[in-house]
Amino acid sequence: MRTYNVIEYKSPEDALTIDDFYKTVGYACLYKGYGEHVDAVPINELTVSIFRGNRPEKMFLTLQKYGHKTEENSQGIYYVTNICRFPHRLL
Fold it and tell me: What is the 3-state secondary structure (H, E, C) of the chain?
């Protein structure tokens, strides 16, 4: 955990889909963007954590299909990288 943490808890009965994943990442982006001043929430001080009782296999397959990198850091704890896979244009 870092200074700023966006946390999503899912019950065992709740699904955890790729859309739930992106929604939680979106909350973190909004939290970062609405700081009191520019860079009030430094990106290297922000984490997203999603807690669920078991591994959502379908979501992990979708993450892989989209080119995200997943790495098991320790038993049952996965790091996901390469999250912003859509084009960004600054004109």
Answer: CCCEEEEEECCCCCCCCHHHHHHHHHHHHHHHHCCCCCCCCCHHHEEEEEECCCCCHHHHHHHHHCCCEEEEEECCEEEEECCCCCCCCCC
Please give the structure tokens belonging to residue 30.
């909004």
Residue 85 has pLDDT above 80, yes or no: no
| Rg of the chain (C-alpha set) | 14
Domain ranges of the chain: 4-81
At 73, give phi and psi (nearest 5°): -75, -40
What's the pTM?
0.89
